[in-house]
Amino acid sequence: MTSTIFLGTGHYVPEKVVTNDELAPLINSSDEWIVQRTGIKERHYVDWENNPMSTSDLAAKATLAALESANLTPADIDLIIYATLSCDHAFPGDGVYLQVKAGFPVGTPCLDIRTQCTGFLYGLSIADAMIKSGTYKKVLLACSEVQSSGLDFSEEGRDVTPLFGDGAAAVILGAAEDSDGRGVLTTTLGADGNLADVLCVKYPGSMYNPRFSQDMFKEGDRGRYPQMNGRLVFKEAVTRLPVVINETLQKASLTIDDVTLFIPHQANIRINEAVAQRLAIAPEKVVHNISRYGNTTAASIPLALDETVRAGKIKAGDVVLFAGLGAGLTWGASVVRW
Asked: Which residues of the chain are modeled with pLDDT < 70?
């Protein structure tokens, strides 16, 4: 039976670090307020003045790091899956730009997906199905975000702007016929479109004619910036994530006690702590890096994964649990035997 295993991981974040103390005066906040509510102390931004970079630029660097760790070249990859909410352009998707910038051969197929914070989980499910069906043998899953160019750096943005950072991460997934039980065991996905507007950016969009207008820049109209009902998102996350995690573990014939490491989406440390507490996951099993990067959306889980792998904290046979919830609302969980 074919299994989907991780062949390599990589990540990249821009060099510019923005601390809470630097950000707070712009949004009428404070380091204490931000840390207490989110667990975030700093985040990385593209240096727009000295080294401007697009989302696909970040993805290319993360991809090359993942290929190096897998000892593979772009020519070895059969399919590119690319997850982001912050494409370089309205269209086409970023996958084709990544193809060129990372040196993939012309003809390498590119699949772009948009499920925001669950982009890695949805992409992993797609890659796993493609590999297990025999359609492709090696798949790149790249996740990248540039949020800094789309945030509201005024007092009106104080509840959302501190949350997000720029960054990218990538994994190489491959087919294994004799994996000794290793690989992606199962993934569970879900969504509730009734809650689509609780976390969204409204402008621009095809539902408006014209898609751009002066009205969109009127004082008080914040539709071009991220909007979030934070309390509702928090409630949905701490309610839905334990359910989808238990469902996923049950499908894999595992229990919480079997989990070696829990790598959740890095949106808010209080969400991750609450989910772990409800599931009785020991704190030392939960991976957190949100304090240094903020929420890098689709990139957050694979970024945390790559850091954990490179730190030598995952060994063969470990059971690794991924889970997250984000805009859409979408959610999911996946369990992997490393």
From this structure: none
